[in-house]
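Run log // design_07
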């Protein structure tokens, strides 16, 4: 038998043994939890609550939440736990950001589940009422659901393990956080095809649903348990909904031993995910300053999140953008042209490399602006490049980009920028494409922040 096949069989046997051991461990712990000598603080939340959870959860949802979502496609469930903070109240603005950045078609494919998870029932009710009042139509349609945990879900949080030298308050805080997430997983299991975890103090990017769909397709051949759409904490972590039950079982075993983000890393490794699959630019930015942990400030910002920082308000007629420069991660060329957050970021260009803007329909040009570099990367500019306009486009095949033909030189780049005005005075015909040609070598990458095109009306 080949050595590789033998190792595969051994690995399968080990995984089966691990599964059987975990099953035995869960049953043993649940049996022990019913014994008088077993500490209340160590109890895994009661299985009866989970088995009968739908009935109890439905009773604790907002009265005007419909039981069935109008959507029949069911792409993504977004789970958001929220509790009281000493300072700062973010959940309403987080929901507003999600809604503002989803199209009507997107709204048919998603469900937003808000878990009011504070120990203070009055506070939970107040938050529920505020959500119901501000987002009445979305709550009424089932796009937004607000849930609460049934009585008796949480243990007493006494005599918990103090791993990592954490204080008593922090141990209770992170232990409860794990249980909060487990509750969400149980409720959201198989509501839709995918599940995404968010925190209650984030801002979303435009078209984030479409971007998540594209990244899932991009990684269809990867062995993944989690895709990440923010580098911070538990923001923008996407699972297959079919995996939620397994992840819930996993975290409930170790809920007082490890923080939730550590448990996620272990879960990914045990499921064979060998690397972090982080989509950049990020789709969510952390905006909260004050943590839900008492007296803790946490002004963290995602360094890969890009604001829509365009400085010009151009016409930008429909077009496709191509480049022979090697693209870094998902900083694709079209991000410099569209209103989507981000920019084109390419590795060191070579002489002869090009950036092409191919218009869907030929247009009369009035003005064109290209700007490279940024405040964070001031040296990632085009040092030596030429801009031309082509009156024809030659298309080879679907596997190769088109080329500009019948070109007219417009200008050369100066300090990484170009701004050509009154183009229609010199070119009296329609323009089908624009081409940036790299004419000299340079040591740095290139960050194309913005492409702006104005047409003659």
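design_07 sequence
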């Amino acid at each position: 038998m080949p050595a590789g096949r033998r190792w595969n069989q051994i690995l399968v046997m080990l995984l089966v043994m691990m599964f059987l051991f975990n099953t035995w461990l869960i049953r043993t712990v649940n049996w022990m939890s019913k014994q008088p000598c077993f500490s209340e603080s160590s109890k895994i939340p009661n299985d009866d609550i989970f088995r009968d959870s739908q009935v109890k959860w439905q009773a604790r949802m907002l009265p005007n939440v419909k039981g069935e979502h109008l959507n029949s496609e069911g792409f993504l469930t977004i789970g958001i736990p929220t509790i009281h903070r000493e300072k700062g109240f973010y959940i309403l603005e987080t929901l507003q950001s999600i809604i503002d950045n989803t199209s009507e078609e997107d709204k048919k494919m998603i469900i937003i589940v808000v878990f009011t998870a504070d120990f203070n029932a009055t506070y939970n009710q107040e938050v529920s009422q505020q959500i119901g009042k501000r987002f009445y139509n979305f709550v009424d349609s089932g796009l937004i659901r607000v849930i609460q945990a049934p009585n008796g879900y949480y243990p007493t949080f006494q005599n918990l393990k103090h791993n990592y030298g954490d204080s008593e308050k922090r141990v209770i805080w992170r232990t409860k956080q794990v249980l909060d997430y487990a509750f969400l997983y149980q409720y959201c299991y198989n509501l839709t095809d995918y599940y995404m975890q968010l925190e209650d103090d984030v801002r979303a990017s435009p078209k984030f649903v479409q971007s998540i769909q594209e990244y899932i397709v991009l990684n269809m051949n990867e062995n993944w348990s989690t895709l990440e759409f923010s580098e911070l904490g538990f923001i923008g972590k996407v699972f297959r909904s079919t995996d939620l039950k397994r992840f819930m079982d996993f975290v409930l075993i170790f809920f007082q031993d490890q923080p939730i983000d550590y448990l996620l890393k272990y879960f990914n490794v045990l499921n064979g995910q060998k690397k972090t699959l982080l989509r950049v630019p990020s789709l969510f930015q952390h905006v909260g300053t004050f943590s839900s942990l008492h007296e803790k400030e946490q002004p963290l910002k995602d360094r890969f999140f890009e604001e829509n920082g365009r400085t010009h308000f151009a016409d930008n007629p429909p077009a496709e953008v191509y480049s022979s420069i090697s693209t870094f991660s998902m900083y694709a060329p079209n991000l410099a042209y569209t209103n989507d957050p981000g920019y084109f970021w390419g590795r060191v260009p070579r002489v002869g490399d090009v950036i092409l803007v191919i218009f869907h329909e030929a247009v009369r040009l009035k003005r064109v602006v290209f700007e490279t570099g940024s405040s964070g990367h001031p040296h990632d500019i085009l040092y030596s490049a030429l801009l031309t306009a082509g009156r024809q486009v030659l298309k080879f095949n679907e596997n190769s980009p088109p080329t500009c033909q019948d070109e007219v030189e417009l200008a050369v780049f100066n300090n990484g920028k170009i701004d050509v005005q009154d183009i229609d005075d010199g070119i009296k015909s329609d323009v089908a494409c624009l081409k940036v040609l790299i004419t000299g070598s340079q040591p740095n990458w290139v960050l194309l922040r913005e492409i702006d095109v104005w047409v003659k009306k």
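The mean pLDDT is 83.
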